[in-house]
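Field log, afternoon session.

UNIT: design team B
ACTIVITY: writing a sequence onto a fixed backbone
BACKBONE:
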């Protein structure tokens, strides 16, 4: 499957980010990628990089082997219904990144025996730093290896049970927004205590990156690392406890729960 051509149906925020990540990773050359969208103007930078951009989904599917579906949940059924005659089980595999649409629903729409994967990446896929949760149905070992390799080039990949896909969406995909809001709020605090916005943003972002790398590179537990920073009677513990009195951890946990309820209800 090494030389497979990839079509991304729906080149919006996530679809275009996947194309960017694929190009950076060199998993495929840009000429192996087609991205579709109704209004092509936003895809011109990808075209300049060598990607084929088009509004013709049928042609994109016919010209490709791996079909990444990055449409909104509300129009995926209608669009795929109109395209299903183009899927060939002896050639194609489908990877859906659509939130909340089950493998069985995708299989019922396509109705062809085409292997189907669900992947839940996040927008850091554009810089090969996504976490992508993956589940599948009717795929061969070679196809599973190919899809896992593809997302491994774009960050890390975790195979999960489909029943955890909504939870993966919240923690990993929505999680980008939560983390960025933390950085934005830290920046605003940093401005209040004296930094200009640009410097405060740089310090906040690099600090979050460093904190995450302590866990990812050294395998440390967050609380053990917090203990190292909290000098007795020092300023860290005072600030941290004030944040907790104001509901810091609780608001995050409740927000994650609210996002999850929105998907599953
Ligand atoms: N944005 C994110 O961070 C993440 C999004 N997702 C899921 O990925 C999917 C896409 O999300 P976004 O990229 O944010 O949405 P988006 O709205 O930015 O992208 C969807 C794109 O599909 C295009 N489109 C609509 N009808 C089409 C058609 N018939 N043919 C070709 N293109 C068509 C739209 O013009 C749009 O550019 C959604 O199901 C979302 O739940 C999953 C993980 C993260
Ligand atoms: O907010 C949403 O519904 C989608 C799912 C994950 C990221 N964006």
């Amino acid at each position: 499957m090494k030389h497979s051509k990839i079509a991304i149906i729906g080149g919006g925020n996530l679809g275009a980010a996947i194309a960017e990540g694929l190009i950076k990773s060199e998993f495929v050359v840009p000429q192996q990628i087609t991205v579709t969208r109704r209004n092509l103007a936003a895809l011109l930078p990808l075209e300049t990089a060598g990607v084929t951009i088009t509004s013709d989904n049928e042609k994109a599917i016919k010209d490709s082997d791996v079909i990444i579906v990055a449409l909104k949940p509300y129009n995926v059924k209608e669009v795929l219904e109109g395209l299903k005659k183009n899927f060939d089980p002896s050639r194609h595999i489908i990877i859906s990144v659509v939130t909340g649409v089950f493998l069985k629903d995708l299989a019922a729409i396509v109705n062809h025996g085409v292997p189907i994967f669900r992947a839940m990446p996040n927008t850091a896929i554009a810089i090969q730093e996504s976490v992508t949760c993956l589940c599948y149905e009717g795929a061969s070992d070679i196809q599973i290896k190919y899809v896992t390799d593809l997302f491994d080039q774009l960050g890390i990949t975790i195979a999960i049970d489909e029943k955890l896909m909504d939870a993966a969406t919240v923690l990993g995909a929505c999680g980008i927004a939560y983390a960025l809001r933390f950085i934005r709020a830290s920046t605003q605090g940093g401005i209040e205590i004296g930094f200009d916005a640009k410097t405060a943003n740089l310090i906040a972002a690099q600090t979050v990156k460093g904190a995450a790398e302590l866990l990812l590179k050294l395998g440390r537990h967050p609380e053990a690392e917090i203990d190292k920073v909290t000098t007795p009677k020092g300023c860290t513990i005072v600030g941290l406890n004030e944040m907790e009195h104001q509901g810091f951890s609780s608001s995050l946990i409740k927000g994650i729960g609210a996002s999850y309820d929105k998907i599953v209800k």
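LOG NOTE: The radius of gyration is 21 Å.
NEXT ACTIVITY: expression trials, pending approval
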